[in-house]
Amino acid sequence: MNWCILIPLLVGAICALLGYLLGKLLGGGNNDDCEERVAKLEADLAACKKARATLEADLSASKNAASLLQADLNSAKTENANLAASFAAPAVTLIPFDADAAKAVFGKKIKQDDLTVVEGIGPKIQELFHNHDVKTWKALSECSVEKCQSVLTSGGDRFKMHKPGTWPKQAKLAYEGKWEELSNWQDQLDGGK
Fold it and tell me: What are 38-56's pLDDT values in tens digits?
């Protein structure tokens, strides 16, 4: 046999055996540690994936809630705009005031929107109406009799005796410049009643 081949094979086998034994001796439990660490890392990974799924679900729910709130907000804005449009003052065609025509009928100078032109309204009652933002014949003509009564009631007991039943109609005639008709009607009235 050829010793040249056998010696390297024998040295290689001995080295392999020594390497195996040294590996077992020095790091024998190393494989078990790795398995434990891998198992722990896999458990951590599973927990992270579960937390991520929960966060994504929460984010999706938050986005849905936000979109619902935005839709509600947009709906409320639309309703407010529609409501504001419904309460918007209609186009008002003002009837021009003719002081000369009023003076010709009443025989005295009449100021525009002077509520005392209405039979039954004096300066104190006019002041009450002004305090309730009723400052023109047009505004008074658009008041209900109940509104007129509540204005009088706000003035106290001394205004209880007044009866505002015809005041809105008289104010309308004044606003429309129907001075002759207003004067004739007032001749028939008893203190605005």
Answer: 889 899 999 989 999 998 9
